[in-house]
């Protein structure tokens, strides 16, 4: 079954404590991306990756890091989380071959920074 | 930069009604347009994908149309049911890479009343 898996699904953490949200896809997709979703602001792209070792900033990259060492994994790193990073985070993936392909989303990760 | 808007922001209808959700985008140079459904606190589920060369796609009670030249798409839901209550988002895949492979609208929150 085609899946994008994120962990953890729910996390409460304290300001400044580094955390990583993992994302894994089993579809051999080249493209992966992280979004955050906030009330009234919709989905905003944080970072994306077109392939292994190729990453680029989206609209709201400040305070986040990513890496793409393997095709299937695209972790989101918050080096020093702050309360304004409290949000619902989504990882997504898509094939870049045949540009009509759909984009698949993970179930989301609720992050609260206190 | 490609921008996507959706009207209305929220809609409440009695069960059984047919309804139309609207999506507009500013740049007609797209590969495809996709409609998603999102239940509260959940991930996004793809409903319909329309390639740029297509005019419409149908799945069950859902029909999506695309008028690329005018930058518009509609999602038609026939005989609405309470289970259709969710937020519906549209997204386009721009041909020009503005740094984003998918650009999302803010969504329409639909409530179908029994």
Task: Give the structure's gist in a few sentences.
The complex is a heterodimer of chains A (114) and B (114). Chain A is mostly beta strands and 114 residues long.
Overview of the structural elements:
The complex is a heterodimer of chains A (114) and B (114). With 114 residues, chain A is mostly beta strands. Helix content of chain A is 0%, strand content 51%. The model of chain A has no long low-confidence stretch (mean pLDDT 92). Chain B has 114 residues and is an all-beta fold. Chain B is globular. Chain B starts with a strand and ends with a strand. At the A-B interface, β4, β5, β9 and β10 of A face β4, β5 and β9 of B.
Helix content of chain A: under 10%
- The low-confidence parts of chain A are none
SSE arrangement of chain A, N to C: EEEEEEEEEEE
Tally of contiguous helical segments of chain A = 0
Percentage of residues in strands of chain B: over 45%
Total strand segments of chain B: 11
| Unreliably modeled segments of chain B | none
Major beta-sheet overview of chain A: 7 strands, mixed
Treating each run of at least 4 consecutive H or I residues as one helix, how many helices of chain B? 0
In angstroms, what separates the terminal alpha carbons of chain A?
A: 36 Å
SS-derived structural category of chain A: mainly beta
Mean pLDDT of chain B: 92
C-alpha Rg of chain A (nearest Å): 13 Å
**Oligomer state of the chains in this structure:** heterodimer
What is the molecular shape of chain A?
globular
Profile the largest sheet of chain B: 6 strands, mixed
Tally of extended strands of chain A? Answer: 11
Write the layout of secondary structure elements.
The complex is a heterodimer of chains A (114) and B (114).
Chain A (H helix, E strand, L loop, with lengths): L3 E4 L2 E4 L5 E7 L5 E8 L3 E10 L2 E4 L7 E2 L9 E3 L8 E8 L8 E3 L3 E5 L1
Chain B lengths: L3 E4 L2 E5 L4 E7 L4 E9 L5 E8 L4 E4 L2 E6 L4 E6 L8 E9 L8 E2 L3 E6 L1
């Amino acid at each position: 079954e085609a899946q994008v898996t994120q962990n953890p699904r729910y996390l409460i953490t304290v300001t400044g404590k580094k955390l990583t949200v993992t994302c894994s896809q089993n579809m051999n997709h080249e493209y992966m991306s992280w979004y955050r979703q906030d009330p009234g602001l919709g989905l905003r792209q944080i970072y994306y990756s077109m392939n292994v070792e190729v990453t680029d900033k989206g609209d709201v990259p400040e305070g986040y890091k990513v890496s793409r060492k393997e095709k299937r994994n695209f972790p989101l790193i918050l080096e020093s989380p702050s309360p304004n990073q409290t949000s619902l985070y989504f990882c997504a993936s898509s094939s870049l071959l045949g540009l009509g392909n759909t984009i698949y989303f993970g179930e989301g990760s609720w992050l609260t920074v206190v | 930069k490609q921008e996507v808007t959706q009207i209305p922001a929220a809609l409440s209808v009695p069960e059984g009604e047919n309804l139309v959700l609207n999506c507009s985008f500013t740049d007609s140079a797209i590969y495809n347009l996709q409609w998603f459904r999102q239940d509260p606190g959940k991930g996004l589920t793809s409903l319909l994908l329309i390639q740029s060369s297509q005019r419409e796609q149908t799945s069950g009670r859902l029909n999506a149309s695309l008028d690329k030249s005018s930058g518009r798409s509609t999602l038609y839901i026939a005989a609405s049911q309470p289970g259709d209550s969710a937020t519906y988002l549209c997204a386009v895949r721009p041909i020009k890479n503005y740094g984003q492979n998918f650009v999302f609208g803010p969504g329409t929150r639909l409530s179908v009343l029994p």
